[in-house]
Amino acid sequence: MNDDYVAGLRTRLGLPGIIDIHTHFMPEPVMRKVWDYFDSAGPLIGRAWPIEYRDEEQVRLKTLRGFGVRAFTSMVYPHKPDMAAWLNSWTADFAARTPDCLHTATFYPEPGAGEYVRAALDGGTRVFKVHVQVGQFDPGDPLLDEVWGLIQEAGVPVVIHCGSGPTPGKFTGPGPIRALLRRFPRLRLIIAHLGAPEYTEFLDIAAEHDAVLLDTTMNFTDFFESADPFPASEYPRLRDFGDRILFGSDFPNIPYPYGHALHALERLNLGDDWLRRVCHDNAARVFGLGQPSPHPGKTSPVSSD
């Protein structure tokens, strides 16, 4: 799908723009290492994964804005101790010089995590990113008790990669998240990738916890469907959770054009109103980014094709 498709979709839906809650902007040395890992098809990836938008930072920003994205994130994630605070310093600076980026932060189970998370909240962080698979830690680690308590009280969303895709880890899957939510039931978790491949289990968690949201990152694309297909039997629940699903792309680390992620959602045939909410209105509400798109429309019948 080319740029004309994205522009046409925005026009047809009457969207003031797209809000993409799952994009990666990182310190350049970190981004290069991430790309090297993808190039090697490392063990957490398991297959060839060519990066579509391998450009320097300003080019990537221009590209994303060119798609009509009006707000996005700078998802970072530590894989070891003594890294998160440094990443948070970088993302704070990036947000200060990039007004359309939602100030993003991260954390890791380590002494002092509560201190730098409190500083991030005081500094205006609007969303956190946690990658259980890459970090290889239990989200219920006691070293994170203070962190979760602070975030719960602040009501700041946390995009958390906790599903077992593309390869399972020791602490991935719904079990650790259920245990976490038993202790911190008001957390505003945003389950990345709809919890792939444990889609049903994470939809169940969302049904049990009103504060839990989900993002569509890479879901329904040809690339994802070939490995972790979303069950057609759950399409009705996608419609039912239409107010709690947010669009994410994983830009720039995707192996296909940006527009394909949006076309993959459109071809679900869940209706224009559903698309408006997922691509803009839900995130606008969650992050306080202004009014809903101007054409409410009606949701079309669910298709299981």
Please name the defining characteristics of this protein.
305 residues, alpha/beta, 6-stranded parallel sheet, 3-stranded parallel sheet, 9 strands, 10% strand
Describe this protein's structure:
The protein is α/β, with parallel strands linked by helices and 305 residues long. The protein has 13 helices and 9 strands. The protein has helices at residues 3-13, 28-39, 57-66, 84-97, 113-122, 132-135, 145-154, 174-183, 199-208, 222-225, 235-240, 258-266, 272-286, and strands spanning 18-19, 69-73, 101-102, 104-106, 127-131, 158-161, 189-191, 213-215, 245-246. The chain has a 6-stranded parallel sheet. Strand 2 (69-73), helix 4 and strand 3 (101-102) form a beta-alpha-beta unit. The two termini are 20 Å apart. Residues 296-305 have low confidence and may be disordered.
Write the SSE topology.
Layout: H1 3-13, E1 18-19, H2 28-39, H3 57-66, E2 69-73, H4 84-97, E3 101-102, E4 104-106, H5 113-122, E5 127-131, H6 132-135, H7 145-154, E6 158-161, H8 174-183, E7 189-191, H9 199-208, E8 213-215, H10 222-225, H11 235-240, E9 245-246, H12 258-266, H13 272-286
Parallel strand pairs: 1-2, 2-3, 4-5, 5-6, 6-7, 7-8, 8-9
Helix pairs in contact: 4-5, 5-7
Count every beta strand, where a strand is a DSSP E run of 2 or more residues: 9
- In spatial order, strands of the major sheet run 4-5-6-7-8-9
Which structural class do you get from the secondary structure elements? alpha/beta
Rg over C-alpha atoms, rounded to the nearest angstrom:
18 Å
Q: How confident overall, as mean pLDDT?
A: 94
Poorly predicted regions: 296-305
Which bin fits the share of residues in helices? Answer: 40-55%
Strand content bin: 5-15%
Looking at the structure, what is the overall shape?
globular
Order of SSEs: HEHHEHEEHEHHEHEHEHHEHH
Number of helices: 13
Distance between the termini: 20 Å
